Amino acid sequence: MFATHNDVWAEPLAAPEGTDSYWSYHRWPAEVVGIVAFGAADAAPPVVVVKWSDGLLVALHAERGDIAWTTRVQTKDSDEYWGRRTGTRTVYGDETLFSLYSARSGSSPVVISSGDTKVDAFDPISGRQLWSVDLPTCHGVDWTGEQVFATILCSDGVHTIHLYDAGTGRPAGTWVPPWLSASSTSAERSWIRWLTACRTESSECQGFQVRREETWRIHADGSVAKEPVVSSDIDDRIAGDVVVRRTDGRLTGLRRDTGDQMWQIPLDSRRVIAADAGTVYLLTSANDLACVDGRTGTVRATVQLPGAGWNAYSMYVTDGFVVIERVNPDARERDGDRSYYYGSRPVVLATC
To answer: In whole angstroms, what is the distance from residue 338 CA to residue 188 CA?
Structure first.
């Protein structure tokens, strides 16, 4: 799946440069602001749901590209296309459109759209609206847990997580850091969170981190519990029941429930690291993709990636597929796309 400002399209999985797309969908002047995908489930076909800057939500049959359903939703003032030439930040970043996919969450699939003051949830197959929640204007970042929708609201000047059941929209609880008090500073009241163990960037996240030493897990019922293993770095990754940590040239796997060390291996890696339910993915110093078994630390495979003189700007992992966005070594954010990205096809898709 690919996107630019006004287009969404699909290509064959291992398409060489110049291959025609399976299908494409174009709108103008509206811009693509969010994309989520749902695989086939039971008799339901795979679906791609696209959110546009004018508030149109369009569901496309993933295999054919024809429209399954459309509806209108509220947008955010910040809704615009952020993907530059490759579209990866928009396709995989899900900052305004979120999913719960039944294969992982154990519940019916749900697509959730977040606006400035309203959140709407739909059945991605039929387009039937499941629920709607009004939110105050002081409404911050959103994401989904494995069976809840989470949003940060400003309550009496304190950032507070509000949780809603993803299937019904019913309130499932609230949470603030336990160390906050009446004497907390303004900066402490405006605490920042980092998401952990997400299926995509902000969807189906098992938990979140506040400060660098506190990791919390959101359970299916909306309750929040502190993870037993203290994380000292936001670069820790969770691979199933293993916490993966990088320290002093080593990669270490720790039991998630006790913190006991399970394995340790030398780390020949650049900064980029990602994980899914059972595998840790490392970009080696030679720009090869090393796939490490999360439970044993064994390198299961090393995938040679094309080209050598590039850096990885981002790496996304979903269901065993790894997407790497490549930039030139001296690339700067303000550079134009021609000098910023590596080669004519800067996005690499790999699997172990």
So the answer is: 42
Across the beta sheet with 224-226, what order do the strands follow?
Answer: 193-196, 207-210, 214-218, 224-226
Q: What is the pLDDT of residues 62-109, one digit of tens each?
A: 999 999 999 999 998 878 888 888 888 888 888 889 998 755 556 689
SS3 193: strand
Can you list the positions of beta strands (E) in 199-344?
207-210, 214-218, 224-226, 237-239, 242-247, 250-255, 261-266, 273-275, 279-283, 288-293, 299-304, 311-318, 321-327
- What confidence tens digit (pLDDT) does each residue in 143-159 have? 999 899 999 998 778 89
Q: Are 72 and 48 in contact (CB under 8 A)?
A: no
0.85 cut: is pTM over it?
yes
Beta bridge partners of 38: 47
**Which residue is listed with tokens 């021609």?**
338
User: What is the spatial distance between Cα 129 and Cα 71, in angstroms, rounded to a whole number?
Assistant: 9
